[in-house]
Amino acid sequence: MSVWKKLFTAIKGGANEVAETVADSQALRILDQEMREAKDQLRKSEESLTTILAKQKLADQKTKELKASIAEHENYAMQAMEKGDEALAVEIAEKIAEFEGSLATEQGMLDQLNNSVRSLKASIKDAKLKLRQMQTQVDNIKATASLHKAQEAVSSRHLGANSKMKTAAESLQRIQEKQKQRAAEIDAANDLASEEDGRGLQERLKAAGIMENQSAQSVLERLKAKKQ
């Protein structure tokens, strides 16, 4: 398959295949290489066109010279016949025939060169247009690939930041829960100590006769007094 055909195949199908090419870095490198080869072939085609144009110019000049020589010798032949010099007229006619043979050859070559020039110019023009279109495709592919890489990098950093934030939040929550647990333990210990201190003080007050001992009998006597 020629480079041009491979290039045309590489971009055929429009946006879908372009998107696939973006995802395939190897295909992108191959496409770059084929673009370079296509440009090199185009340069060689232009060099060939320059050579053919030079040959065309020489062939055109040669045909013009032969036509001028034929016209010149036809005039000589007419003059020889007017003077009655048949032998000279025949000799000139032979020369004219020789010129006409050369002219036919040169004209055939010139026609071929003209056709080649027209065909090659059209092909080069078409190739340049397609090459520009493909270069635009390649540039778009590269730009899209770069954009995707940038988006992936941003997404990766965002996910990493979110993960770190989540981890930090979880750590903070664990610390807060531990602090709450510790605070509750301290409060419970303080309450327990207060209760123990309170009971000890009451017992000492009762023993000193400062606080009455609230026995069941004393409660009944108090209730009877209220009833009377």
TrEMBL record:
Residues 152-200 are annotated as: Disordered. It comes from Zooshikella ganghwensis. Pfam families: PspA_IM30. InterPro entries: PspA_VIPP1. Residues 175-185 have a biased composition (Basic and acidic residues). Keywords: Coiled coil. This is PspA/IM30 family protein. Belongs to the PspA/Vipp/IM30 family. Residues 28-55, 110-144 form a coiled coil.
